[in-house]
Write a structure and sequence with these properties.
By secondary structure, this protein is of the alpha/beta class. It folds into three domains: about 5-60; about 75-130, no CATH class; about 145-340, Nucleotidyltransferase, domain 5, CATH 3.30.420. Helices cover about 45% and strands about 15% of the residues. It has helices at about 10-25, 30-40, 40-55, 75-85, 100-115, 120-130, 145-165, 230-240, 260-270, 290-300, 310-325, 325-330, and strands at about 130-135, 170-180, 185-190, 205-210, 220-225, 245-250, 275. The strands form two sheets. The chain has a five-stranded mixed β-sheet with strand order 5-4-2-6-7, sandwiched between helices. Helix 1 (about 10-25) packs across helix 3 (about 40-55) and helix 2 (about 30-40) packs across helix 3 (about 40-55). The radius of gyration is 31 Å and the shape is elongated.
C-alpha cells in the first residue's frame, strides 16, 4: 500500500494523525501495524511515540511554521521596559552594562520576558517609545574663531603641502584620562531629558596617548600616572620607530607638548619628526578626539570595569582591535568638523 505524505495534510489533520497513531500503539498494536494502517513510515510512528513519552500530548501538536512567535512586545511589557529605562541604570538591574544601549535593552527584555529581539528591532522600539541616543557636543568658550579660520584656510593646508614635499605622514595625536566614575558614551533617554548616570563607589583610572592618520594607522600607549615630558618622549620614540616615513605630529598646546625637553629632542631628531600645534582650545579640530570618544563609549562605557587592571585590559584590547580595523579609523575623519583633515 502506498504511503501518504503527511506533509500534504492540513495542520489539523497532521496533528490528528499523530494522536491516533500514538493511541493505536498504546492500545497494544505494534509500530509496524500502525504504520501500515495509517499509511505512514514506521520511523514516523517511532518518532511520534518517542516525543509523546518525553513531552506528553503537547509534543504531538503542530508546530507553527515561519517566523517564531514572541518577536513582539505586548503593551504592558513595553510599559515595564520604558519605566525601567527611565528609572534605573543597567548595573542597578544586574546587567553587565554602564549605559542604556540597544544591547542592554535586549538583555533586559530577554531576562524579564524570555523574548529575544535583534538590536535593530530594539532600535525601532526605542524610537517608538521616544528615546534617542544622546551625547552633548562640547566647544570651549575660549576658542578663537579667527585662529580657527587661519588654521583651516592657511596653516593646515601648508602643513599638508609640506608633508607631501618631505614625504612625511601626518599623525594627529592626543592624550586622554579614563576614570571609573566618568559619564561616557551614549545612553538612551527620553527626548529632551538627558539621562543621569550613577557613579561607582570605587575610583580608579588609567591614561592613554594615541595618534592616528587619515589612512587608518593607529599608534597608542596606555600608561599609569600623570602625563609628563618623560611619558611623551617615550611615546614619540615609539611612534617614530614604528612609522615608515617621517612623522608630522599635530597636537594641542598642552604644556608638556611644548616643554623644553621635548623641544630639544624634536630639534635633535628633525629628520624623523616635526611637531605642529592646533589653535588653543580647539579639540574639535583634532580627529584623534573621535578615537577618544570611541574608546570611552565602546571600551569603557558599555561595560563598567570593576578595577584598574580590568580597565587597562579593556582599553588595550579595544585599541588593538581598532589597529586591525583601519577603515573604522579612516571613518573618524568623516565627521563633519574634522573632514578638512581627510
Amino acid at each position: 500500500m502506498k504511503k501518504q505524505d503527511a506533509r500534504s495534510l492540513s495542520s489539523e489533520a497532521q496533528e490528528a494523525l499523530r494522536v491516533r497513531a500514538v493511541k493505536a500503539v498504546l492500545s497494544g498494536r505494534t509500530q509496524l501495524e500502525v504504520a501500515e494502517i495509517f499509511r505512514v513510515s514506521r520511523q514516523s510512528v517511532s518518532i511520534w511515540l518517542k516525543d509523546y513519552r518525553a513531552h506528553g500530548s503537547k509534543a504531538l501538536k503542530t508546530k507553527r511554521q515561519g517566523r517564531p512567535t514572541g518577536g513582539t512586545l505586548k503593551p504592558w511589557q513595553s510599559a515595564q521596559i520604558v519605566k525601567a529605562i527611565k528609572d534605573r541604570h543597567p548595573d542597578q538591574l544586574k546587567l553587565p552594562f554602564y549605559l542604556w544601549t540597544r544591547e542592554a535593552v535586549c538583555q533586559l527584555i530577554e531576562r524579564r520576558f524570555g523574548i529575544k529581539l535583534s538590536v535593530w528591532t530594539i532600535g525601532r522600539y526605542l524610537r517608538r517609545w521616544g528615546f534617542s541616543p544622546q551625547k552633548p557636543v562640547r566647544r570651549a568658550y575660549e576658542q578663537d574663531d579667527k585662529a580657527v579660520q587661519l588654521w583651516l584656510k592657511e596653516e593646515y593646508p601648508a602643513i599638508r603641502h609640506q608633508a607631501k614635499q618631505e614625504k612625511a605622514t601626518i599623525f594627529w595625536g592626543d592624550e586622554m584620562g579614563l576614570r571609573s566614575d566618568d559619564n561616557v558614551g551614549r545612553s538612551y533617554g527620553k527626548r529632551g531629558k538627558t539621562p543621569v548616570i550613577a557613579g561607582t563607589g570605587q575610583r580608579f583610572g588609567c591614561n592613554m596617548i594615541s595618534a592616528i592618520t587619515n589612512q587608518g594607522q593607529l599608534n597608542f600607549m596606555v600608561f599609569k600616572g600623570s602625563f609628563n615630558s618623560h611619558v611623551f618622549l617615550s611615546y614619540l620614540k615609539r611612534l617614530t620607530k614604528q612609522a615608515k616615513q617621517k612623522v608630522f605630529l599635530i597636537v594641542d598646546r598642552h604644556p608638556v607638548h611644548r616643554a623644553s625637553k621635548v623641544k630639544k629632542w624634536v630639534d635633535n631628531n628633525r629628520k624623523i619628526i616635526t611637531i605642529f600645534f592646533l589653535p588653543s582650545y580647539s579639540p574639535d579640530l583634532n580627529p584623534d578626539e573621535m578615537l577618544n570618544q570611541d574608546v570611552k563609549s565602546s571600551a569603557v562605557g558599555r561595560r563598567r570595569p570593576h578595577n584598574y587592571n580590568e580597565m587597562v585590559k579593556d582599553v588595550r584590547n579595544f585599541l588593538f582591535s581598532r589597529q586591525k580595523q583601519p577603515q573604522i579609523v579612516k571613518n573618524y575623519f568623516k565627521e563633519q568638523h574634522v573632514k578638512y583633515a581627510m
